[in-house]
Protein 1
Amino acid sequence: MTLNTRLKPVRPPLQGYYSRTMAYLCVAVTFLAISIEQGFTGPTTAVILYSLLYPQLVRFVAVRLRRFERLQSRLALLALDAMHTGIFITLCQFSLVPSLVFLMLISFASIISGGTVYLVAGWMLALVGILISSAVLMPEPQFHTGLLVASCSLISGATFTVVVAAFVYHQGRSLEQAQRLINAEQEKTSKLASNLAKYLSPQVWESIFSGKQTVTLETHRKKLTVFFSDIRGFTELAEEMEAEALTDLLNNYLNEMSRIALQYGGTIDKFIGDCVMVFFGDPVSQGAKQDAEAAVSMAIAMRKHMKVLRQQWRSQGITRPLEIRMGLSTGYCTVGNFGADNRMDYTIIGREVNLASRLENAADSGEILIPHETYSLIKDLIMCRDKGQIAVKGFSKPVQIYQVVGLRRDLGAAPSFVEHELPGFSMYLDTTSIRNYDKEDVIKALERAAKKLKDKVII
């Protein structure tokens, strides 16, 4: 069945054939009426035969030559129809009714094909046809139109108009139905793409769907800043909690950390249990310095946000003070698609990946560790404390490391945040993140807390 379909010649669309046949049939009927009124002559008989045969000839050639389906070919045929219109007007000796009907036919066809521009072009070509044929034939103008010719011209012209209008209406309805099907398919595809996008980092998904990145097994070297974090004491917590509650806690934590990572422009590589791996500098990079600053700023924001999460978890009965530890490293990594042709993963490998992972394992609760190269890029923006050199597994030489203290703007005389934790009390206030229209709500909440605390002390 497939083979037979391939062997059949592809025929061009029939709508042009039908409308052209109707138009030239109108011309044939009009000249037949002229012949009946004035007697058959060689030119009128030739016009009748030509009008009946010409559409069939065009169709025959179009079937043989597929290039007639192209827009240029269709426009050339429309231009030839306009020239024919001028010749037919000359041959009917400028009889008023047939001339107006012929102009109406070419106008209708031109508007359907391309609107006002094609209409003007059709009139101009019809005028050219009139001038050329008049120069050759030198007819005697006869503006009067007999009753039979006028009736036949008007009836055939009206029939053409009604039939073509009905076809255009039917075509419009078909296009409308096709558009609805296309919209439904697009919506279905959009939902599918949205679901699939959740398995990829937004930056990677966007670069693939925009065509900037090909889905092939290829990699390249690039300077990146790599980030690792995990929850200190998560293994012990997993032994104490039910699986469902632990799943909810972990999903909540990963969702919040992902939101912060995307806020700072990080590419989320993967989640491994409670471990989060993020890198900066690919597929979009702001420059090595800016990428490193964004990565460390993200780590600080995550550490701050853990205070909010601990307060939420405490209200859910989780009293263990969960802390995260983080490690970062900056350097050249191999980034791209790894795996097999039918299953690949967009990730990074290299020395800096291993170093960031080792520093995360070496960090204490709430600590952010970075090597010297990362420190040299972010020291103007972020305050760090020198922790000397440590031996790192897999590295032959000791590594100089620094502990990230915080953003310099938050450590001055007027820090932008206030935080304090005691048994039964936890507060974290970041004035830079509070929206203007939320200030009153925050002030009222603090006043209610202060009133409750005072009442409790009095009692």
Note: The chain has three domains: 2-167, 202-406, 416-459.
Protein 2
Amino acid sequence: MSKLKTFSVGGIHPDKHKITSACPIEDAGIPETVFVPVKQHIGAPAKILVQKGDRVKTGTLIADADGIVSADVHSPVSGEVIKIEEQTGETGYLETMITIKTEGDEWEESIDRTPDLVSDISASPEEIVNIIRSAGIVGMGGAGYPTPVKISVPAGKKIDCIILNGIECEPWLTADDRLMQEKGEQIIIGAKILNKALGIQKAVIAIDENKPQAIETLHQLTRRYVGVNIAVCRTKYPQGAERQLIAAVTGREVPPGCLPVDVGCLVQNVGTVHAIYEAVQKHKPLFERIVTVSGDDLENPGNFRVRIGTPASYLIDKAKPLGTPGKIIFGGPMMGVAATNLAAPVTKTTSGILLLKEDSVNIFEPTACIRCGRCAESCPQGLEPFAIAGFVRRGEYQSAKKIHVLDCMECGCCSYICPAKIPLTDYCKLAKYEIRKKK
């Protein structure tokens, strides 16, 4: 095997806790009621197309993309729309949601529900983009950027390399790992679909070295597909971030203020690419995803195929907690958010739900900064979090802006590594919020 790839600036090595990597994907079943947010993506909320009393099928379009940067939303179940109102989402903020009472599971007739693999890509490049748009596909690695916008290359730009992100560097999470193990060929065909849409021949699946089974599976499969290769990366967090992954795989650096397209790259999460396969080859909208439910005090941790809109409490019951968790997190422990409402639903960007014991989430009182510089050494963006924190404490947000706080991607490396337990990432988040609010 060739030398393992990684990025050069910053990064940390938290414990992996990938205890569910050997757990096959289970169908979570269908809850009695689902709560479907009309904004599960970056951009404008989708425009609601249904009203109370309407009956829908699984896969029915219930909210239409409102503008270019938006995404369609489809019903994850068949049943009756019982209310449309604001409810608390996973971030603790009120969000407009469509509540549907489940009645059976009748799918739209256009969806191909057979397990047969479809490898012949008959759709044209233009048709591929339109199908992805009508399927409501967004980035499923966490950002939620509408995929059709991302793959529509601006005039004067050219992409020559697609990177499929299978790194999954957050501790505990294994949804992408299992998807690569179980649906590897569908992911490869999804990569070929993107190749055709963009008119190029090169796609690279980047995988962390801590996923040996997925690596072996995809190595075997890619021998049958020209133009799709594997890049094994050394374990380091946050290797799955776009800029860091591009640097690791291609050696290209995305300058501050620029996008991956500016260096000829497109990065897509493997879950997103699998959804693209299902949309283009199976006519299936994005209304379900794989979610890891894990932690250090569960009887049945695992990876579940979950309908969008499923309450977190429903999944937590599936995992069978053995005690009272000290903290419940939506997403991973580094960039996820602490749960404030267990009735909050799974969305297109929910990669995991973690239940951690009290002694795993001890909260320490911060002490004085000792100027050790470890936060700066670990920052993958090359920032000085200790200096940013000082400016924020004094309310000097423009000074924080001058030392590039807006480049912070909120990965949590600085807070994790700080011996004084200063919440440096929170200071960076506050600075970005205040700067943007003033703008």
Note: The longest strand covers residues 79-88.
Protein 3
Amino acid sequence: MSTDQLSTTFAALADPTRRAILARLLSGERSVSELAEPFNISMPAVSKHLRVLERAGLIARRKEAQWRRCRIAAGPLKEVANWTEHYRHIWEERLDRLDQYLQHVTTKEEKSHGRKPRGK
């Protein structure tokens, strides 16, 4: 996937309505009107969101009689996952350091709670 396509995918995913549409498509193919149900936006606005998702390759649309049906297309999402995988080691290292710090703090607290109070 080229950087331009990756940018297009990230731009499409940047909008919460489009992410919600994709989430609704996880359960299977749906009509445009079914996709529009939970949103308090006009059908032309839903259509615009669908066009953005389609241009990014995140959904595929087909016409069935008078209905337009949409389904998720996983290819670009796999490419995003592959791209982000290159950065996994950064988060793993940070989580390892956090774990070490928390273990250190816990050990320190356990030792301090086990002490007898000092007399004056």
Note: The first strand starts at residue 30 and ends at 31.
Protein 4
Amino acid sequence: MNTKLLRGIFLSFVLLSILFVFVANSGGEVEGKNVIYVLKIEGTITEGTSLDVVEGLREAEEIDAEAVLVELDTPGGLVDSTLKITKAILNSEVPVITYVTPKGAIAASAGSFILVSGNIAAMAPGTTTGAAMPVEIGMEGRKPADEKTIKFYAGHVESIAASRGRNATQAKRFVTENDVLNENTALETGIIDIIAEDETELLNKVDGMTVKIGNENRTLATKNASLYIKEKSVRSSVLETLSNPQIAVILLMVGIYGLIFGFMSPGTYVPEMIGAICLILSLYGMGLFEVNMFGVLLIIIAVILFIAEALTPTFGILTTGGAVCLIIGALILPKEPFLFTPQSDWFEGFLLTIIGVAVASAVFFFFAVGAVLKVRKRRAKVGAEELIGKITKAETEINEEGGTIKIEGEIWNARTVEGEGIKEGEKVEIIDREGLTLIVKRKEN
């Protein structure tokens, strides 16, 4: 087998093995009684976030923690990931305290679902929650999801709030009316139970409260409890990155381009290997959120148009078409409804990423690939072939029998085509060669 191929296969195996180790790693362990297990949910909620929470709740049960404190500061995220988190919290055998913190934090959109799912819900001063109407992403930007979807999630958050003895009507309005509440209004309307400045005040206020876990009433002893803050495992970090639609789109494009350039420049196996790995990772990441196949098709069409522009330059017409297809395809790629607050800048970042990828792809294919293909189409010029077309002077008289010329410091045998004679000192043009003899003709002034 080809040595380069073996190296490529071996390197691919090593990289995938490292990735497997990362994904398989579940983090460290903690032991001890009277422990408050702290989980932090920050930024956009993705599949990695849900994995982190589910693993944390399981570990808290294993160490028999007094309670789990879920600290929230999130603008929202993927619906499916949010539902996994709320399900895990509702079924936890350890009491769960949800807490919007620090001051200035938000539990918007998907965060409000998580907030009302806790056994005890709390907010720090200067925090807000709500704005949970699901949105869809498309060419028009963000827009509310269809009525059927909104109805379903309104009913779901209403059910969650009711199961925890909270104001189900107000929780429902988070979805139907996009209500936003500060900590005082949330307390007055029965969405939260406590307002606390920090973790210490929260745990002091929670101490002695009774919560229902399954069919059992449990009294909390949280005063002076030690805090264990769970760090994100490598596995959840990798999944969080891959399940981000922005990263998935970039990996998809790099994967496609890698395969294309690998096929165009065979022999190294590096582009194909990188392309294959990126493509696999992108498809895996897309599997963590629902994908619009029409969006994938538009992205593939965009790449085909870019390649067509490079092969048959149309002065940017095909490149423009490819860029448009890429932007549209990427914008409609996420099919799953999102729970995002209207103030979230996630969509703006997603849009800028798509436009950046489209512009970079268009520029690259319009200039770089076109130039490479033009060079590859040129006739190879090696040795004497490089001299064809150059002008010099005859060193001696030259006819069809022979003669000599001097070019680039070297003396070459030369002859003319049949019937032509060139005098010494006249200008000649090299038009061809036969072995080590150059064919020349008189160069007219």
Note: The two ends are 59 Å apart (CA to CA).
